[in-house]
Amino acid sequence: MNIKWSKRVFHIMSRRYSGNYDEFPGVISRSMRNFKSSFKDFPNNAVLTLAIEPYKGHKGQKNGFFYVGIRFFEMPNSVPQEMDMIHLEGDYVYVRDHLNMAKLHTYFRSLEKWIAENSHHHRKDPNGLQLELYYPNPSSESGLDIEVCIPLKRDDENKMNH
């Protein structure tokens, strides 16, 4: 698995959804279909993006939020009234591969392991959303590639900020 780390910028036109963490797989799947169906012609080359609030492990934390949207490589001139524009910027560790939903947890576990082995931590600020980006790829069996991104806060940043 080819894990990479770099400074990244994401502009995502999206809608916000929420739900119970135990029900996230079904809620997210329905929300992604709902988002795509809200367009008369969903662009074939669009990068469908899922931005998820990471589960923080609190005993009482049952609900979370996520955004479903389209990634733009430059800020659009206008955003429809029912959409939000999210701007995320910072260091990310990520992996990209042909889409295979059975491997999704493996990607996240591998990235988590890399973070721990390289003395980094998750960002906990509002930009700390984990991302799944779905890129069109006609040569992939599923027709898509997936990129999983986790925002980083390096240990040396922690020392500088304290």
Question: Could you please describe the fold and organization of this structure?
Answer:
Keywords: Plasmid. The protein is an alpha+beta fold and 162 residues long. It has one domain: Regulatory factor, effector binding domain (Multidrug-efflux Transporter 1 Regulator Bmrr, Chain A, Alpha-Beta Barrel). The protein has three helices and seven strands; from the N terminus they run βαβββαβββα. It has helices spanning 24-37, 104-117, 155-160, and strands spanning 4-20, 47-52, 63-72, 84-98, 120-122, 130-136, 144-154. The chain has a six-stranded antiparallel beta barrel with strand order 1-3-2-6-7-4. Strand 6 (130-136) and strand 7 form a beta hairpin. The protein is globular, with a radius of gyration of 16 Å. The termini are far apart.
Summarize the structure.
This protein is an alpha+beta fold.
Defining traits:
162 residues; alpha+beta; Multidrug-efflux Transporter 1 Regulator Bmrr, Chain A; six-stranded antiparallel barrel; 7 strands; disordered C terminus; plasmid
Largest sheet: 6 strands, antiparallel, barrel
CATH superfamily: Regulatory factor, effector binding domain
Helical coverage, percent range: 10-25%
Based on CA inertia axes, which overall geometry fits? globular
User: Into which percentage range does the β-strand content fall?
Assistant: 35-45%
Q: Give the integer mean of the pLDDT values.
A: 86
At CATH level 2, the architecture is: Alpha-Beta Barrel
| CATH class label | Alpha Beta
| Element string (H = helix, E = strand) | EHEEEHEEEH
Rounded to the nearest angstrom, the distance between the terminal CA atoms is 35 Å
Q: The CATH topology, please?
A: Multidrug-efflux Transporter 1 Regulator Bmrr, Chain A
**Which structural class should the secondary elements be placed in?**
alpha+beta
How many H/I helices?
A: 3
Strand line-up across the major sheet = 1-3-2-6-7-4
How many strand elements? 7
* Low-pLDDT windows of residues: 158-162
Q: Determine Rg (CA atoms, Å).
A: 16 Å
Q: What count of structural domains?
A: 1
